[in-house]
Queue: 2 jobs
Job 1
Amino acid sequence: MSIDTLDRIETKVFERPTSLIDTEMHYCPGCGHGTAHRLIAEVIDEMGIVEETIGVAPVGCSVFAYNYIGVDFSEAAHGRASAVATGIKRVLPEKYVFSYQGDGDLAAIGTGETIHTCNRGENILIIFINNGIYGMTGGQMAPTTLPNMKSTTSPFGRDTKSMGYPLKITELVAQLPGTYYVTRQSVHKPLNVRRTKKAIQKGFEYQKLNKGTSFIEIVSNCPSNWKMTPVESNKWLDENMLPYYPLGDIKVPNEKEA
Amino acid sequence: MIKLMKGNEALAEAAIRAGADAYFGYPITPQSEVLEYLAREAEKRTGMVVLQAESEVASINMVYGAAGTGKKVWTSSSSPGISLMQEGISYIASAELPCLIVNVQRGGPGLGTIQPAQSDYFQSVKGGGHGDYHMIVIAPATVQEMSDFVKLSFELAFKYRNPVMILTDGALGQMMEKVEFFEQQERTTEKLDWATVGKPTDRDHNVITSLHIKPDKMEEINIHLQKKYRLIEENEIRFEEIMCEDADYIITAFGLVARICTKAAELAREKGIKVGVFRPISLYPFPYEKIKSHSSKIKGILDVEMNAGQMIEDVKLSVNGKVPVEFYGRMGGIVPAPDEILEALEKYIEGGKL
């Protein structure tokens, strides 16, 4: 075998999905957003729906999702992603519409929109990144911050007596008749990454079938604001986040019907 | 087609006829007939999307999302609901999305009253939400104009990629008048190069956003917006002059109040006082120059509004001290009568103020 031939061997085992824009991300090292973005881009590519998909990115770390995922995108005001997605989907019902929202956005300031969008059964996919903290504003308490967990606005730990309890909004929306598929996944281990990708794919497929709201929570990390290394943060996620936010499907479609 | 109709219903009927694609709204007195009428009529006639949202906050953000696709989208509400929409309106103005927002005003502040008022003038023409932006604001005075201005609003919104507000009030919304409707227009969507409709292979992905984190970029956006507003100020000034040619005094008033003032001017002329009425139709852009052009020929201006005196600031800016400008207003949902306006004018004249 000549050197020329070796140069021409193309066995790519890993490449950037076409829909993931080739640019530097602003996310911190070890943050789960990058992986979640990649999974969405992979699914969009594999389903061949780039031209049919519109994303919504509201305020929070994920607001710049539109700089990384190469589909048409609408930025949204804090908390309003699912209302914006509703507006888009209602006038373009044949398109795929998804929102990508953080915990502060979806479960605090946008709780009303989240509940009502799911209750109307809007035929969209909601991807909910829960890292238990406000990332972009610098580590303040989130609606999903764990009891006794420290943040810049709960410096002595979240005291549930005065600060309330972590909101399990995913279980809450699963109770609503409008939701069709509700699941909680993570991207901190290879197996979980694969499961999350599968869930995202299902979400888009159910949308094609006009089934109602698909809601995917991704329990994620925030090394910078948790003040840990990426590896420590994944371990902490395993030991602390997952007992409170257990992984798995919460509402699955009736298989016969699906 | 000529019909006897409530102002609110005329708004709804006109939007159906203008080929609007979607309406997102939330009930509030005195404009709930808009949503009710659309719920009955719109979907079956043109396929317009009509959605009752969970709040005005959600409504305006649905408008934002849908307007980003280049569709003809609108909402309506009344004062407290419009206050809730201000954040969304600021985003819409910054992202340059065409849409129509109707404010059927009621008396404030706070929960106020359900009776008509004009006390959202400042909010409508001076910003309302955060940041430097303008909506195009037009004020109908008749049920006929409630219909005509819906069509005009969509044209202006798309011409300038800018939100347009119809600023009206509960009296015009509730009262019935004869209205002649324009012909039904087809629902068509232009292919717009900025709209988020799904990215074809031959262009970059479109992003609707008002976020530009680098200050030099954000300043660039602001400069662009300001240039657009100057263009709007140049081209879109609308007004009506009634008996102004020989007038010694001019009453400035907008919306329904201008009609009441016209009656007051007629009563004044019966008494030998030559009074005209100047009615700004576009409140933004405001007809500063036109009002100024009258100032060399008149003795004074009486500004009449259903508020504590808001448009009067722009009237004063127009004449820039050349003639005295006095004010008569009623607040909290009270509509002034022609004779009390005339009385106020006479008092100012007798007292040497006009």
Note: Chain B touches chain A through 39 residues (CB under 8 Å).
Job 2
Amino acid sequence: MKTLSRLYIGLILLFLYAPVAVMIVFSFNSGGSVWVFEGFSLDWYKGLTTNTSMLTALEHTLIIAILSSVISTVMGTAASVGILALRKRVSRSAVMSVTNIPMMNADIVTGVSLMLLFVFIGNLFTLKESLGFFTVLAAHITFNLPYVILSVMPRLRATDMSLHEAALDLGCTPTQSFFKVILPSISTSIFTGAIMAFTLSLDDFVISYFTCGHYQTLPIVIYNMTKKTVTPDVYALSTLIFLAVFVLLILYNVLQSKAESRRGFNV
Amino acid sequence: MNKKSFGSRIVAAPYMVWAAIFIVVPLLIMAYFAFTDGSGNFTVDNFMQIARFKKAFALSIIYAVIATIITLLLAYPMAYYMTKLKISSQRMVMMLIMLPMWMNFLIRTYSWITILANTGLINKFLGLFGIGPLQLINTPGAVILGMVYDFIPYMILPIYTAMSKIDNSLLEAASDLGSNSWSRIRRVIMPLSLPGVISGITMVFVPSISTFYISQKLGGNKDMLIGDAIEYLFNTGPQYYNVASTLSLILMVMILVCTLIMNRFGDDEEVVV
Amino acid sequence: MFKKFLSLLIVLVLCVTLCSCGYEYQNPELQCKYTRELAGTELNVYNWGEYISDGSEGCMDVNREFERLTGIKVNYTTFESNETMYSQLKNGGVSYDIIIPSDYMIGRLISEDMLEKIDMSRVSNYQYISDKYKGLYFDPAQEYSVPYNVGMVGIIYNSALIDEPQHSWGALWDEKYKNMSLNFNNPRDGFMTAQKLLGFSLNTTNEKEWDMACEKLKAGKSVLQSYVMDEIYGKLETGEAAIGPYYAGDYIVMKEVNEDLEFFYPQEGTNIFVDSVCIPSCVKNYDAALLYINFLLEPEIALANAEYIGYASPHTAVINNPDYHEYLGEEFYNILYPDMEALYPGDSALPENERKVEYYHDLPESVRMHYENLWLDLKLY
């Protein structure tokens, strides 16, 4: 039973990693193809440094991911507080239903509806160009917000009201109490929300595809590359990103287990 | 100031304005396009044209249903076996499942071409034994494989989360009361992991039915799925915006209906996605 | 274990940053000609995929060169077909300063007032354009476009996988090549293959003929492996597909990778095209656009592009350059610059709509809507 279950887990992981392995192997191809392996070389990694279109796209992706996750975290946390303060249950559930829409809806529908909005606004003001940095940023903030709110709100709801009341009794203003008492107690869920937003933004292709205009993010550039001959430089870049994430996750796990064993958990 | 809250409801105002502009208004504009013709007159003609897209709708639904079922069948045992591992290994496996999600899905999908192609890795390997080449790429099977591959983490993770929340004492009680391992799975684990299954199904079904990349790359770009049709129409010019909006609206309604039905099953309002 | 891993990663990253040895190109003459007056501005260029020398494999990176000389930042994006480009321009989402459409699309853009006139007096290198390609039907006064590349469509096949087919469009319908043949993924070129096979003019306004061509394409769909544009490179080069129609210039690029590929112009005739540089009316940086057009026509730049892209050039300094002849070799030269009289005897004497080799013309809106709808039906079929 035990070997069977291990084998099964192994097979599923093999399935998940087969294309990743292909990608890593072909990133070291000395030939220009992602089909035939001709020999080992680091040429594609070297080539990355001069590949301006890909580096610019990477820069765009990071800028959008950072800005959109920060803005949506701040706005989403404030929204969670405010939504919980709504007196009527009806209005609360109405707001939550709207919040759920981008999360439930297909990306392509969100993407095209936002594009229609931006083009409509552009035509309204007879802009020469309606899509670009601000539209892709707005789109990313929009699809990040529900994830932040759904991460923060349950934690906020579970926070003991007496903490807040105690702070008020001890002479804090409500604002002080919020920043000094409540915020630290929900910081983990805010952090989770922010990380989730960052990841989603980094990986988003479909919504950016319809809203980015000239401000092309990495997934868009990769999409355009897969429309012609794909050269191993895309694989090289992806391999580097993969390694970076891999190292970060391992570090995070190691740190977490250390912290837990220090606290006396038996892991 | 409401005494029972941590702050004023005013702080939600920016979000509410934002949600109105970027969530509600776009959908209204889309609905407006869906019910008008090119010059802005009301019409239901666009809905009459839907018959043209019946094959695309049918294929999308069939592929998405099959992909969701296969994903569930693969993911359920995976999640179950994971809960049987040591906690540290569980965390490791979780990490390994999430790691590929950080990679661009276009690249991961594209890599499958190298594996499945007529001159690809599998056929080269089979060729060593004089078999093949098998037609793997450009088939419905390849499209479904792509969907299963891209979305399986969204199935494993919620099921695993639901299962790992099951109290061990329940299982012990079940064995004390004489259940064997199969009936423990059927009577205890299955019902208690249902919320995870429900959200897993929605999280796989929605992207599968609306995808527009997988079918183009792995399916040979011959059969349009509904996502492909929407993308094609929006890229072909403003004269198709009305029909494309109608398709998007229908797709959205289909997804909402499915989600609502699934949530009925789950009878847990937090399950939504 | 982790330490080892980390150090490996660091070494890797260092390798990448240290070994950046890009191509450097110096030409003092050009340096004098191009001032940096517009430095700091941006230029949005919208071109076909694989349609400029981009610095890969040691060739010249034309956009970077332009940036270096002028200090103008080039935002370079690509499109797949005239139709995609048109829809992007039409919807107003994005603005461009330079676009490179084909003949019939230029005609449409002019008629819809979507192009800006090019001030030829400021494009001194315009003198290099061969007279043969000046004042063509889509831009008779040559006010809106500067020819960039010319070419014809033919069929490429892999001689290691299949025997030489009959030189006919019918090869794309041949059951022998089931799952091995490709066709165009854009309406004008896609319909062309069927129209030529059926003996229709490419510019017919008879909707019945378009319907019949569509039926023909539907019948061929079960044989086809895929509808492709530039994906054809990968598919033919690796032997994933055995036969498909594409632009002659691309064949030359593919042949460098796969020796087994062969090419022919089908006997029923084909499409001839001119892709030209234009400035759309949404232009934001007109002066830089003129500079860019002039730069593309610099003999050296045009040569680098002609060699990289592989298409036939309308640029006299390129055509008359002996090194270019030598670079191409006899076989490629004859494909790019064929003796039309030998290939299609008597064709050029015929009235235009009876010729085997035809340009695409922009068609009346009703016909256009009709064939676009047929194309959609074909894709949904």
Note: Chain A touches chain B through 91 residues (CB under 8 Å).
